[in-house]
Amino acid sequence: MSLGFSVEALIPRTRGGGALRMGLVRVPEAEWLTPGADLAARAATFAAEPGCVQVLPEAETAVNEVVGMLSHRDLHSRHPGESRDPFATTFGAGVEPERAMDPGFRRDDGLEGRTARAAAALRSAAAGVWEDLCILTPDANGQYRLTAAALAFPTDWHLHEKLGHALTPIHAPIHGYAEQLAAGVDHFFATLQPGAIFGRTNWFVVASDAWRYLPQDEPDVRFAHVTAEYAGETLFVRCERQTLRRLPQSGAVLFTIGIHVEPLDRLSDGAVARVAQSVAGIGSGEHERRAAPFYAEALTRYAERRNRSPELLA
Question: What is the pTM of this model?
């Protein structure tokens, strides 16, 4: 069963409550990244938010590999005669072409300069695909840490708070992660082989269709306008289409996140029922983290009306 590239297609792959699990499926190379996406919103975000791309020195080699991988993929998917700026996905990205071609221009001008150019190259590569790009590299103890990312469309987290941290601290806000999932995730990262791509889906019910979801208000205010009558227009399902693959040269792991958002009234009756079931099935800690107490009743009543059968939600 394919992951698909829409909320409707992704919902059946989401966790419907119970114990945490990775829920991985194999993803063919041809279905790795979202095809045909309108990238204008990503370009605007990268231009407006310089902090959404960050690279630590230990990730430079992996960044170079990712940039090369996406450049090669783009080259083979381009139409005949279509060209790309040669500075767009190289470590010269972010440097004015006139300066880069100046014989006096030096590319070996220190660690800070190399890291800045790596960040510019990653920014350019990430602007050319729908997915956000996160690079995790192993430290001396074999712990994978987030050491580079181009994060245009986060779901309620800030890159500067996670950068440099290992997997378990990164997922600390998720109730039960350390006890139920950490060991399995660590094993997966340690044993993932180059060439294989795995995917999974995460979901959220939110009160906005913004691509960049960083709410500042309290959930009681955020969902105050949501009622069962108008839940179809005021509640949105936000799915993260996530993939993981090993970079064969650097050994790092590339984690991609593709965001897909739809209001409830654009989803099928079955999909709405599945979302309501998932919300009802999550544990107490996660229930609060996802702000479910502020919309769950309205969602359930809306789903019942859509399905005309409360037992579908039992």
Answer: 0.87
Q: pLDDT digit string (tens) for 35-73? A: 999 999 999 999 999 999 999 999 999 999 999 999 988
Residues 6 or more apart in contact with residue 23 via CB below 8 angstroms: 13, 14, 15, 200, 201
Q: Residue type for 14, please? A: T
- Two tokens at 13? 């792959």
Question: What is d(CA 45, CA 47) in angstroms, rounded to the nearest whole number?
Answer: 5
**Contact between 150 and 163 (Cβ < 8 Å):** no
Residues 163, 261: Cα–Cα separation, whole Å: 26
Where does residue 289 rank: exposed (0-12), middle (13-18), buried (19+ CB within 10 A)?
middle
Q: What is the spatial distance between Cα 11 and Cα 305, in angstroms, rounded to a whole number?
A: 20
> What is the rounded distance in angstroms from the CA atom of residue 119 to the CA atom of residue 134?
12
Write the CB contacts of 194 (distance below 8 Å, at least 6 apart in sequence). 245, 246, 247, 248
Question: What is the pairing mode between strands 197-206 and 144-150?
Answer: unpaired
